[in-house]
Every structure is written in C-alpha cells, then in structure tokens.
Specification:
This protein is of the alpha/beta class. The chain folds into three domains: about 140 residues, no CATH class; about 290 residues, P-loop containing nucleotide triphosphate hydrolases (Rossmann fold, 3-Layer(aba) Sandwich), CATH 3.40.50.300; about 90 residues, no CATH class. About 35% of the residues lie in helices and about 25% in strands. The chain contains 24 helices and 25 strands. The chain has a twelve-stranded mixed sheet with strand order 9-8-25-24-23-10-22-21-11-20-14-15. Helix 11 packs across helix 12. The N terminus is likely disordered. It binds adenosine-5'-triphosphate (ATP) and magnesium ion. The site of adenosine-5'-triphosphate has 21 residues, from helix 7.
C-alpha cells in the first residue's frame, strides 16, 4: 500500500492509478497528488499495456478505507507524524474519469523491452495486415492500477489535431496546462453546428473567432444574419469598452462585404457595401405563413393567400393586395357598397369572406409599409448576395435599424429559401457533370430559436438545411442562449456543439441530447466559468473537452497572420488594426 497519498508513483507525472469503475460508471483513479492540483474537466490519459485511454475528469470524491478515519480529526489527538502516516494510509481522493477514446500505440518508448517489442508490434502494420492505429471510441477498460496522467500538449494534438495540419484551427486552450485545442474546420462545416451559453458567456466572441477561422482557412463562404450589427464593423465591447474588430475590417472588403437592409441603410453611421431591397415580387405566400405567430394570423390566411395567388399569380399577388383599399365604399342606389378597388370587393368576387381578407390586409400592413420592400428595386440584391457567396466572398447582413423579430424572420427566411434553391440547383448540375462543385456555405444565425423553434421548424428552410446535412453544401452555425427552445429534431442534427455556461436545466438537457456520457457532462456544464469557458461536444469533435476560449483581440489577428495558410488579407487587416 502507499506510504503517503500525495507521493508520486514511479513515473514522473502520474497523478494516480486506476482502482475501479467501468465503461458505464466511468473510471475511478486513486489520486497520488493533492486533489486541488486536478480540476473537473481536466483531460486525462491512462496508460495500460499497449493502449492509451483518453477521458475527462468529471468528478473528485473524497474517500476513506473506514469512515471513522474520515470523521476523526487525528491530528488533534496523535503526534503530527503519526497522524499524517495514518491519514496517508486511510484517506484518499478518487478522480472520476469519463473515458471517451482509446488508441493502441505500442510499447512505451522508455520501457525496458521497447527495442525488441516495438518492431514486433509494428510489423503487421507495416505489412498491411493491420490498420495504422487511430483513436477510436472506448470499447474496453484499462487494467487495475494503470497509471493516469494529465494530458501533455502532444496528447491533445494526437486527438484534436495540430494547428499546422490543414483545416485545423485553435479554438482555445485547456484550462490548467493551457495546451492548444483545435477544431477540424472541415468537420465543423460538414454538418450544422451550434454555439450555446447564457447571455454574456462569450457566444458572439467565439462566433467571431470561428468565422475568422473559416474565412482565413478559406473553407467555406460565410453568410451572417447579423441581427444586432455585431459582426461586420468594429464594435465596442459593452462590458470592457474595448474595441472589437469586425470581420470586414479584419479581412477587407474584397473578402467580406456588409449588406445593409433597406435603401438608406447605415450601420452606426457607416454605409454598407451594398443595400438589400426586396421587390414585391420576391414575397411568396410561404414567407407570410412563416410569420403566422409574429403577425397573429388566423387559420383563414392560407385560403385568402391561395385565392390571391390564383388571381394575380405568385409574383403579382403582393402588390395587387397591397394596392387594394381597406374599407373603401361607393354609393349605389343610396346604399354603401365595397368600391371596385377595395379588399371587400375582391373578396366577394373570389369567394373569400370579406372579414378574413380585410383582417389579413390589416395585419400585412406591417409588411406593406416596410421601406425595404419596394416595387422596383435598383437591382436584384438577393442575386447579388448569392453571386458573392458563390465566388467565395463572405456576407454580413446587417439589419441596421430593422431589429424587430418580424424583419429578422422575414428576411432571413426569404434569403435562405432562395439560397437553398440555388445551391440545390448547383449541386444537381454538379452531380450531372454539368458544373463544378458548389462552394461550401455556412449560414450563421443568432437567436436561432426564433427560426428553429418547434412551431417554425416544420416550415422553415433552416430546419431543412439542418436536417439534410451536407447534401447541398449548405450548413448552419446556430447561436442561442436558450437551446431548449430549439426543436429537438434540429438539435439532434447539430454535429458540433460548443457550449458555455447555462443556468437552466432544460437548456443543459437540450445541449447534451443524444450524446454519450451526458450525466457526467451535465454537472460540468453547470459549473463552467460564466465567461469564456466552453465545453466542446458532439460528432464534430473526437471527444468532449473543456476549453478556455481563445482571446479575440488584436493578438488574435496577429497570430492568424503568423500561422497563415489561407486567404487572410494581410494588408487590409494591418491597415485596419494599425492605421498609422
Ligand atoms: N473570446 C473572448 N475574447 C475576449 N473577450 C471575450 C471573449 N469571450 C467573451 N469575452 C468578453 O465577454 C463579454 C461577453 O461576451 P459576448 O458578447 O460574446 O457574450 P454573448 O454570449 O454573445 O452574450 P449575449 O447572449 O448577450 O449576446 C464580451 O464583451 C467580452 O468582454
Ligand atoms: Mg451575443
């Protein structure tokens, strides 16, 4: 038995040894270092024979060989040296490790038989009889007394990749040892992903970091529905008052363009690169039906819309309905009758209840009066957005002063619908050998539950995109404070989930839905730092890991420049960051 709890086992950096547990109940590691030198969330490596097991610490438990030793303050009764010895023999701490991956990596390089054993172990691999070992989901357990270690930089790189590997991007660092943790950007964009956390937990900052990574590595075109005008231009952090570099400022106009909603859009006094104005013809009945909750539409709406489309066509109905007069009457034979250009007149003619048509007309006034919907816009701005994205540019769509949910739902759905159609067309042409491969596109949506709640999810293009995965080269990056409000079918499709602190049990539950080891992870999520600390989860990462988010500041762009492989516009960034 151990002489002293805190004495190291034979290897230099072992923190303990396996004493029990299993795949279902996690592994129990008897600590040989003081408990406060290990924290929940630490990345742990357990070496057992030719295998390494990787997991994260999810709990620390104080134990005693007999409860009496724990209850009794021996130091007060016995001489100090004897008390310490007794405590060392009887009191201990168990670290609970959630095992995730295992990797066969052969004999230990410093072990006595290494020189002989290594070639024997390698031979079948070299001969092609056995596959090159790769980390795989854990399917067995290490033997009793296997040693446990805190992961080294190389262990993290083995699992999460290195920054120097193509498509790997540092998203943060491990909490204690500050080893860099990468995400595989290719994998991140292969399926839709999500960034969650309570307000102030750092979602928008982390989103900037990830988007900058995607733009820098040129892995996808990015379209951001920037509801709060945060991503394009420089901003001031509300808490620290510091300047926050916008993506357009960092990458330059040739790469990132800001589109402002409305013909006279300005974003905090700065003109956008181009304006988005919609034509009456752009609005189709589905766009209206999506706004049912927002506009408080009645069940009769779809009947009225059908009749309008039947009479005026899918591109003419909006203008015709808009032009009708509500309540206008004429006198005929001393009686008031609906005027020929009135809503009621049209309704009577079309077999629609006049009250239903007038009700809808009143509710749609909120749209009829939107200055960004006009009869003849100067250009087809949606097409211009699509063209930019196809060319590999990135778009930040700023809503400017149009910050209501109505604007957000209408515009984001309408554009996404057009984009999805276009990308589907391009994909089909590509599959038929008639066009080149479509450019991967990532659509970023803040306050995603507004678009992907249970009620909306059945109808929006967003949920279709989340569900169909990569089929059409478009995926989502959803950002939300309240993941529990996102339809669970959509949540379950999110490959990578990056989650900051969440206070609400339902939100924690939603983020972990469908993931292995969620009971162990639940507690960790609840105990994250309120800011800048996240748990990386899901199919897009090899295993769950706790990460301190990378800092988003001037150094961030300097580092990006240093490790640069992609399309980062050096000159534009330097000009913006260091104007003199
Ligand atoms: N990676 C980071 N680098 C630098 N500062 C950060 C980082 N993450 C968070 N912060 C700090 O935390 C503050 C809040 O972060 P952020 O605005 O991203 O929160 P949020 O989760 O988007 O909140 P909300 O839900 O209210 O939009 C920032 O103003 C900034 O000062
Ligand atoms: Mg935010």
């Amino acid at each position: 038995m151990q002489e002293n709890n805190f004495e190291n086992t034979n290897s230099q950096s072992a923190i303990g040894y396996v004493v029990g547990g299993g795949l279902k109940e996690n592994l129990h590691v008897r600590l040989t270092v003081p408990p406060f030198s290990i924290q929940e969330g630490s990345f742990i490596v357990i070496k057992s024979g030719y295998w390494q097991f990787y997991g994260i610490a999810t709990d620390l438990q104080l134990g005693a060989t007999d409860q009496r030793f724990a209850d009794d303050q021996m130091g007060k009764r016995l001489p100090e040296s004897i008390a310490a010895l007794l405590q060392g023999q009887t009191l201990y701490t168990n670290l609970i490790v959630l095992p995730s991956l295992m990797l066969e990596n052969g004999p230990e390089p410093n072990s006595p038989g290494y020189v002989l054993e290594y070639p024997i172990w390698r031979k079948p691999i070299e001969d092609g009889e056995k596959e090159e070992p790769r980390p795989m989901p854990v399917k067995t357990v290490p033997v009793h007394h296997s040693e446990a270690f805190l992961a080294k930089k190389g262990d993290i790189a083995e699992i999460f990749g290195k920054e120097s590997d193509d498509g790997f991007f540092v998203i943060g660092h491990t909490r204690e040892q500050k080893h860099p943790v990468c995400v595989n950007l290719d994998k991140l964009i292969q399926r839709s992903s999500g960034i969650f956390g309570a307000t102030g937990s750092g979602k928008s900052f982390l989103t900037r970091i990830i988007l900058a990574g995607l733009i820098d590595h040129d892995k996808a075109s990015v379209l951001v529905y920037d509801m709060h005008n945060e991503y394009g231009l420089d901003d001031t952090a509300s808490d620290t008052g510091q300047n926050v570099v916008g993506l357009r400022s960092a990458f330059g106009r040739a790469k990132v363009q800001i589109v402002g909603l409305g013909s006279s859009a300005d974003i905090r006094g700065v003109a956008p690169d181009f304006n988005l104005t919609l034509s009456y013809q752009d609005i189709i009945p589905e766009d209206i039906e999506l706004l049912s909750r927002e506009l408080n539409l009645k069940e009769t709406t779809s009947g009225t819309l059908d009749a309008l489309v039947q009479q005026f066509g899918p591109t003419g109905w909006f203008k015709s309905f808009r032009d009708m007069k509500h309540g206008k009457t004429v006198e005929e034979d001393g009686k008031k009758k609906p005027a020929p250009d009135s809503v009621a007149f049209w309704a009577n003619q079309s077999g629609i209840h006049p009250m239903a048509a007038e009700g809808l007309h009143t509710k749609l006034k909120r749209l009829f009066n939107k200055p960004y919907i006009v009869e003849t816009p100067p250009s087809d701005s949606i097409q211009a957005i699509i063209e930019s994205l196809r060319k590999g540019q990135h778009i930040v769509l700023s809503f400017g002063k149009f910050e209501s949910d109505l604007d957000y739902l209408l515009i984001s759905n309408l554009i996404t619908r057009r984009i999805r159609d276009e990308w589907e067309k391009m994909t089909n042409q590509f599959r038929n050998g008639k066009a080149s491969e479509p450019r991967q596109l990532v659509i970023t949506v803040e306050e995603a539950h507004k678009l992907l709640n249970r009620e909306m999810a059945a109808q929006t293009t967003f949920s279709t995109i989340a569900r169909e995965m990569r089929k059409y080269y478009v995926t989502l990056l959803v950002i939300d404070q309240r993941p529990s409000q996102i339809y669970d079918e959509v949540m379950s499709q999110l490959g990578t989930r990056v989650c900051g602190w969440l206070g609400d049990d339902d939100d924690v539950h939603a983020v972990l839905s469908g993931l292995a080891g969620r009971d162990a992870l639940r507690g960790m999520l609840a105990r994250l730092q309120p800011k800048e600390e996240v748990l990386l989860l899901g199919w897009g990462v090899p295993m769950p890991i706790l990460v301190r988010s990378r800092r988003y500041d001037a150094d961030f762009y300097k580092d990006l420049k240093r490790s640069q492989k992609g399309s980062f516009d050096k000159k534009a960034a330097i000009d913006t960051l260091y104007p003199d």
